[in-house]
Amino acid sequence: MQNRLQINPFTINELSPIGFIAERWEFHENKRVGNKIKIPFSFLGLTAKAFMIQETLKHLKKLRNYERDRLEVEKLNELNTLIEEIEHDYPTGWNGFTLWLQGKNDPNPERVKKIIEQAEVLSNEICPPKPHSWIAENVDVILVALVVAIGIRSYFIQPFKIPTNSMFPTLRGIVITPKPEEDQFPSTPQKMLEKIFFGRDYIDFTIPANARFLGIQSSGFFLWKKTDFYYAVGGDEVAFGLRTEALPTDLIDKLRIPLTTLQRPVQIKGTVDTGDHLFVNKVIYNFQKPQRGEAFVFKTTGLATDYNLSKKDDENAGSQYYIKRCVGTGKDRIRVEPPYLYVNDKPAQEPWIKRVWTSGDLRYKGYSNGSANGQVMNFLKSANEGFEIPGNSYWAMGDNSYNSADSRQFGPVPRENVIGRAWMIYYPFNRKFWWIE
Questions:
Q1: What is the three-class DSSP state of 397?
Q2: What's the CATH fold of domain 175-273?
Q3: Largest CA distance in the chain
């Protein structure tokens, strides 16, 4: 015959750990069939009721350890007496398990209730429950979570977002795709889902005839980033707000947004897909140096990038972060003879470097001495020009060499600029979770 024991009907203060245990748990007693014992729920050989007793004992001992120094002698003695009573009546370990098998250590439900109530009263007398204590508890949890998150980001793993396509197709940056006027966009719910899971924004607006361009204003950040295009229409000022992370210059270029006075209406239609979001391993380079072929992230402090040169007189300008492939380390001699990359006068043998000219994937164009957009390169400008990398420095190049601002422009990357190795892509979800090679 199976007996059913329900613990939770006791009226006990839920604010204390004792009350929480008593209110939360519901158990069934062990069911004995002949000489066999079936245990629906047990903890180290204890029945559910005995488990309740032992959790109560654990709480009382913790309370004694925390409050011993400030407790009055009378309260400390009362606490010790209750602990000793429970330990005597309900031994733990092998002795307790043996007694339980013999049916001699199975607490009576009324006895369980009495012990928990005694512990509850004593606990509340020693540490009275404070009103609205849940607020402080949740604030503590949030603060601890923030400290842990900041610690992980600072020393272990840091998220980054890819804005450009200098590492395409290995890593994808923001992609702006113009669409013809006759294309039908999905419904609003589908757009919302695609925004959440794929990071896709839909752009569709019409600039009326005789509209005169006034200017551009960007505001917000992350998911709330917005670019407003202002036009004068008649005597009114009209703003077309695009909620997208793409740069205004890229939107103008790819979607052909007019910046002049229009003679006829112009419809602007297209999509903007977010760049890859990835985690960077900041720990690994504490134990080893960057190796040829690894995709790595570095800050551009002290490097002659376009951004740094444009902000050289701005003392408050921060540093940008770049992700490129390490194609050479200290003392290597680098040379580019399109589409090949030579390291110490031999074609590079690392598979992730060779892939750029040998993969058969037409999206990889090989390495180049120049840029497709006419950007000036200061190093490796011809097939005969080489460069020997200084010690404790690295040569960084994008897999999309024809559209990459890299060491050919700003030179070698010092070791102190290196942040970590690109580890894995975690968003958008249509790119899958995959390791970066």
A1: strand
A2: OB fold (Dihydrolipoamide Acetyltransferase, E2P) (2.40.50)
A3: 97
Whole-model pTM? 0.70
Cβ-based burial of 354 (10 A; exposed 0-12, middle 13-18, buried ≥19): middle
Reading the block at residue 40, the tokens are 């629906």
Kindly state the DSSP code that residue 46 receives in the 8-state scheme: B
Distance of CA 371 to the CA centre of its chain: 34
| Residue 56 CB contacts under 8 Å (≥ 6 apart), including other chains | 18, 21, 86, 115, 116, 119
Q: Where are the alpha helices (DSSP H) in 90-232?
A: 93-101, 109-126, 133-155, 188-198
- Spatial CA neighbour of 331 closest among 383, 292, 302, 295: 292
Amino acid at 102: Q
Domains of the chain, residue spans: 17-126, 175-273, 277-435
**DSSP label at residue 261:** -
If you ran DSSP here, which 8-state letter would residue 157 be given?
A: E
Q: How far is CA 89 from CA 41, 46, 95, in A?
A: 22, 14, 12
Q: Across 14-137, where does the E strand assignment appear?
A: 31-33, 36-38
* Backbone torsions φ then ψ of 277, nearest 5 degrees: -105, 130
- From the list 302, 287, 282, the residue with the least C-alpha distance to 156 is 282
Q: Where are the alpha helices (DSSP H) in 222-345?
A: 248-255, 306-310
Report how far residue 359's alpha carbon sits from residue 290's, in angstroms, rounded to the nearest whole number: 23
Residue 303 burial by CB count (10 A; 0-12/13-18/19+): exposed, middle or buried?
buried
Residue 288 and residue 311: Cα distance in Å, rounded? 33
CATH superfamily of 277-435: Umud Fragment, subunit A (2.10.109.10)
The total of other beta-carbon atoms located within 10 Å of residue 264's CB is 8
Q: Kindly report, residue by residue over 187-220, the tens digit of the pLDDT.
A: 999 999 999 999 999 999 999 998 999 999 988 8
pLDDT digits (tens, 9 = 90+) for 372-417: 877 779 999 999 999 999 999 999 999 999 999 999 999 999 999 9
CA dist., res. 13 & res. 30, Å (int): 28
| CA dihedral (129, 133, 138, 144) positive or negative | negative
